[in-house]
Amino acid sequence: MMAEKNQVQNIEKPLPGEQILIIRHLHKSFGNNHVLVDFNLELKKGESVVVLGKSGSGKSVLIKCIIGLMKPDQGSIEMFGKNIPDINEEELDKIRAKVGFLFQSNALYDSMTVRENIEFPLRRHWIRVSQAEVNKMVLESLEDVGLAHTIDMMPAELSGGMRKRIALARTLILRPEIILYDEPTTGLDLITGKEIIELMIEIQKKYKTSSLIISHDMNCVRMAGNRVAILTEGRCYALGTYEQLQLNTDPLVKQFFE
Amino acid sequence: MSLATNLKIFFNEAGNLSRFTGRFFKQWFKPRYETAELGRQCFVIGYKSLPLIGLTAFILGLVLTIQLRPSLIDYGVESQLPAIVGIADVREIGPVITALIFAGKIGSSIGAELGSMNVTEQIDAMEVSGTNPFKYLVVTRVLAATFMLPVLVMMGIAISLYGSYLGVNIHGVTSFHLFWKQVFDSLSFTDVLPAFIKSYFFGFAVGMIGCYKGYNSSKGTEGVGRSANSAVVLSSVMIFVIDLLVVQVTDVLGLN
Questions:
Q1: Which domains does chain A carry?
Q2: Does B51 contact A at CB distance below 8 Å?
């Protein structure tokens, strides 16, 4: 998997199981700025991979390419048997219905209540369910994140941690098979950040989802990731469990664990 | 900045706005039709603008009448005051002033709203949620602005004439019936039609520029402020440009 000369040998033992997301030879540039250069990664069913990298290393670009918000210059991103850069809008929508995305800024719609925010993906993905069923699902999602009492509140009335939980509840409403987290603890204090990570782990266990987490928060890396991929110089520089990478002596890997 | 650089920026912006407008027409007829959101936007853009438009129109009619009276007395045509105010109001002042107030209220609010949605990734979130954000946010707002401004203009003109009636009666006595008879006698279909038609273009320009500026705002809070501000400035300029073009067209068609 890691053929490049300057890369650290892949030290992880492959986990058994079906690959749910396969990224191969991904390239993305903005002018002369080569953000992703031959990036490769696999996510297996039920596992959680954290992509660790410095600010500006291309983590958010990677996650936006995966969900189809950006088109890579080269390479493939296979999810549910489809290559994301090649499919049309309609097919992409069907895939997106199975993938949750937690935005770094939460991206809650300011003009809508918490209930409307959570209902939104359900209504927009043409999922035909009765109003009673919708209410039940909204309430269940809110209970999962422990904020059922905020159902009729506006996002502006909530704290940063609460907004993150509501955004997570919104991703859960469609019962996704994969959840993509873009910097889930950014902007939160240590305690709230830890609570969010615990919630992510709980949700993964409850709904048996696979998670791809973009982060530079070492707490998040340590607690939430079955495997850790280090993204540097636009490629997956090292891949392994937290413990394996912690023992790695390569200076580029070591700097993250010091 | 040199003149060449400024020209380059101008043509670049004009090109991008044209492409954005082209995208609007391409998306407008494509399903899925966002009728519920269009209805909501008509309510927000049209109905909620009515108090402001109504108040300013009433004051405008009143002030215009009070200020015109001395000049008309000098020329000995004071009795023509309702007719003159009516023509000025219907043909030019009503549509343009209403459109400018509309640009200030709606252009800035669309620019700021879409700008902040862009900055906080809400537009991306919408796309991930199986929604075409261009159709949901841009097409609905532009259509609502296009359809609502002519209604507001007509209501504004009517309210403004009530203001004028009050102005006429401050220094004299004119019956309600006589005032309206004089106003309607002085007006013809060719006065009302161009004013009504140009209001559609004004509304379209305000909606389109507000959406363009907001949708393409640069990241950061400063970008949001700039979007709102430039949406108002550019819409206001476009209102005068469209007005100038419409006058030329109606002149050629013999409607002036």
A1: 17-89+226-258 (3.40.50.300), 97-207 (3.40.50.300)
A2: no
